[in-house]
Amino acid sequence: MEDSTDTRQEDEQATNPRAEEAAAEESRAAGRDDEDATQLFQPEERQDLESRWNDVQSRFVDEPRTSVEEANELVGELMERVVSGFQTQRTELEEQWDRGDDVTTEDLRVALQRYRYFFARLLEVPGER
Description:
Elements (H helix, E strand, L loop, with lengths): L3 H12 L1 H21 L5 H16 L5 H34 L7 H20 L5
Protein backbone atom coordinates (compact mmCIF):
# COMPACT_ATOMS: atom_id res chain seq x y z
CA MET A 1 0.00 0.00 0.00
CA GLU A 2 1.38 3.41 -0.96
CA ASP A 3 2.00 5.86 1.84
CA SER A 4 0.11 9.17 1.43
CA THR A 5 3.35 11.04 2.19
CA ASP A 6 5.01 9.34 -0.78
CA THR A 7 2.05 10.26 -2.98
CA ARG A 8 2.21 13.91 -1.89
CA GLN A 9 5.95 14.02 -2.60
CA GLU A 10 5.44 12.51 -6.04
CA ASP A 11 2.63 14.97 -6.77
CA GLU A 12 4.81 17.87 -5.63
CA GLN A 13 7.69 16.69 -7.78
CA ALA A 14 5.41 16.44 -10.78
CA THR A 15 4.14 20.02 -10.37
CA ASN A 16 7.09 21.80 -8.78
CA PRO A 17 10.24 22.21 -10.92
CA ARG A 18 12.40 22.87 -7.83
CA ALA A 19 11.22 19.64 -6.23
CA GLU A 20 12.00 17.84 -9.48
CA GLU A 21 15.51 19.35 -9.52
CA ALA A 22 16.03 18.31 -5.89
CA ALA A 23 14.90 14.76 -6.73
CA ALA A 24 17.29 14.68 -9.69
CA GLU A 25 20.17 15.85 -7.49
CA GLU A 26 19.29 13.19 -4.92
CA SER A 27 19.34 10.60 -7.69
CA ARG A 28 22.74 11.78 -8.93
CA ALA A 29 24.09 11.71 -5.38
CA ALA A 30 22.77 8.16 -4.92
CA GLY A 31 24.54 7.18 -8.14
CA ARG A 32 27.82 8.59 -6.87
CA ASP A 33 27.40 6.74 -3.58
CA ASP A 34 26.66 3.54 -5.47
CA GLU A 35 29.66 4.10 -7.72
CA ASP A 36 31.98 4.43 -4.75
CA ALA A 37 30.46 1.42 -3.03
CA THR A 38 30.40 -0.81 -6.11
CA GLN A 39 33.78 -0.39 -7.71
CA LEU A 40 34.71 -3.67 -9.30
CA PHE A 41 38.33 -3.42 -8.21
CA GLN A 42 40.01 -1.75 -5.32
CA PRO A 43 42.89 0.57 -6.31
CA GLU A 44 45.49 -2.01 -5.21
CA GLU A 45 43.81 -4.76 -7.27
CA ARG A 46 43.60 -2.51 -10.30
CA GLN A 47 47.25 -1.57 -9.96
CA ASP A 48 48.22 -5.25 -9.69
CA LEU A 49 46.19 -6.12 -12.81
CA GLU A 50 47.72 -3.25 -14.76
CA SER A 51 51.21 -4.30 -13.65
CA ARG A 52 50.55 -7.87 -14.77
CA TRP A 53 49.29 -6.58 -18.13
CA ASN A 54 52.41 -4.46 -18.57
CA ASP A 55 54.56 -7.55 -17.87
CA VAL A 56 52.65 -9.49 -20.53
CA GLN A 57 53.19 -6.74 -23.07
CA SER A 58 56.87 -6.33 -22.29
CA ARG A 59 57.52 -10.04 -22.95
CA PHE A 60 55.99 -9.88 -26.44
CA VAL A 61 59.19 -8.99 -28.30
CA ASP A 62 61.15 -11.96 -26.90
CA GLU A 63 58.29 -14.45 -26.49
CA PRO A 64 55.28 -13.44 -28.61
CA ARG A 65 53.36 -16.72 -28.30
CA THR A 66 53.87 -16.91 -24.52
CA SER A 67 52.85 -13.28 -24.20
CA VAL A 68 49.61 -13.88 -26.09
CA GLU A 69 48.87 -17.01 -24.03
CA GLU A 70 49.40 -15.03 -20.81
CA ALA A 71 47.23 -12.20 -22.13
CA ASN A 72 44.47 -14.73 -22.83
CA GLU A 73 44.72 -16.10 -19.27
CA LEU A 74 44.77 -12.64 -17.70
CA VAL A 75 41.77 -11.44 -19.72
CA GLY A 76 39.89 -14.64 -18.83
CA GLU A 77 40.61 -14.09 -15.13
CA LEU A 78 39.54 -10.47 -15.40
CA MET A 79 36.28 -11.40 -17.15
CA GLU A 80 35.44 -13.92 -14.43
CA ARG A 81 36.06 -11.29 -11.75
CA VAL A 82 33.93 -8.71 -13.56
CA VAL A 83 31.03 -11.15 -14.04
CA SER A 84 31.27 -12.23 -10.41
CA GLY A 85 31.29 -8.59 -9.26
CA PHE A 86 28.21 -7.73 -11.33
CA GLN A 87 26.41 -10.87 -10.11
CA THR A 88 27.11 -9.89 -6.51
CA GLN A 89 25.80 -6.37 -7.11
CA ARG A 90 22.63 -7.70 -8.74
CA THR A 91 22.02 -10.06 -5.82
CA GLU A 92 22.47 -7.21 -3.35
CA LEU A 93 19.98 -5.09 -5.29
CA GLU A 94 17.44 -7.88 -5.35
CA GLU A 95 17.78 -8.38 -1.60
CA GLN A 96 16.92 -4.71 -1.06
CA TRP A 97 13.42 -4.98 -2.50
CA ASP A 98 12.51 -8.67 -2.47
CA ARG A 99 11.24 -8.79 1.11
CA GLY A 100 7.60 -9.54 0.39
CA ASP A 101 5.05 -7.04 1.70
CA ASP A 102 7.53 -5.30 4.01
CA VAL A 103 8.69 -2.90 1.27
CA THR A 104 7.71 0.76 1.06
CA THR A 105 7.31 2.80 -2.09
CA GLU A 106 10.46 4.67 -1.04
CA ASP A 107 12.40 1.37 -0.84
CA LEU A 108 11.22 0.55 -4.35
CA ARG A 109 12.07 4.03 -5.66
CA VAL A 110 15.60 3.76 -4.31
CA ALA A 111 15.92 0.23 -5.71
CA LEU A 112 14.84 1.42 -9.15
CA GLN A 113 17.38 4.27 -9.03
CA ARG A 114 20.11 1.77 -8.19
CA TYR A 115 18.99 -0.55 -10.97
CA ARG A 116 19.08 2.40 -13.40
CA TYR A 117 22.66 3.16 -12.36
CA PHE A 118 23.62 -0.53 -12.56
CA PHE A 119 22.02 -0.83 -16.01
CA ALA A 120 23.94 2.22 -17.23
CA ARG A 121 27.21 0.73 -15.95
CA LEU A 122 26.55 -2.50 -17.82
CA LEU A 123 25.91 -0.55 -21.03
CA GLU A 124 29.19 1.31 -20.58
CA VAL A 125 31.30 -1.85 -20.60
CA PRO A 126 33.28 -1.50 -23.83
CA GLY A 127 32.71 -3.97 -26.61
CA GLU A 128 34.88 -4.96 -29.54
CA ARG A 129 37.05 -2.36 -31.18
